[in-house]
Amino acid sequence: MVSAKMYELGTKKSTIRTIFEFGRKRAAEVGEENIFDFSLGNPNVPTPDFVRDAAIEILQTYEPAQVHGYTVAPGNPKVRETLAASINQRFGTHFAGKNLFITSGAAAAITICFKALAEEGDEFITFAPYFPEYKVFVESVGAQLKVVKPRPEDWQIDFDDFQKLLSPKTKAVIINSPNNPSGAVYSKETITRLTDILKAQGRDIFLICDEPYRELAYGVEVPYVPNFYDNALVCYSYSKSFSLPGERIGYIVVPDEVADFEKIYGAIAGAARVLTHVNAPSLWQLVVAKCAGKSVDITPYERNGKLLYEGLIAAGFECVKPQGAFYLFPKALEADDYAFCERAKKYDLLLVPGADFGAPGYFRAAYCIKQETIERSLPLFKKLAAEYRG
Amino acid sequence: MVSAKMYELGTKKSTIRTIFEFGRKRAAEVGEENIFDFSLGNPNVPTPDFVRDAAIEILQTYEPAQVHGYTVAPGNPKVRETLAASINQRFGTHFAGKNLFITSGAAAAITICFKALAEEGDEFITFAPYFPEYKVFVESVGAQLKVVKPRPEDWQIDFDDFQKLLSPKTKAVIINSPNNPSGAVYSKETITRLTDILKAQGRDIFLICDEPYRELAYGVEVPYVPNFYDNALVCYSYSKSFSLPGERIGYIVVPDEVADFEKIYGAIAGAARVLTHVNAPSLWQLVVAKCAGKSVDITPYERNGKLLYEGLIAAGFECVKPQGAFYLFPKALEADDYAFCERAKKYDLLLVPGADFGAPGYFRAAYCIKQETIERSLPLFKKLAAEYRG
Question: Is the pLDDT confidence value at B111 over 90?
Answer without folding.
Answer: yes
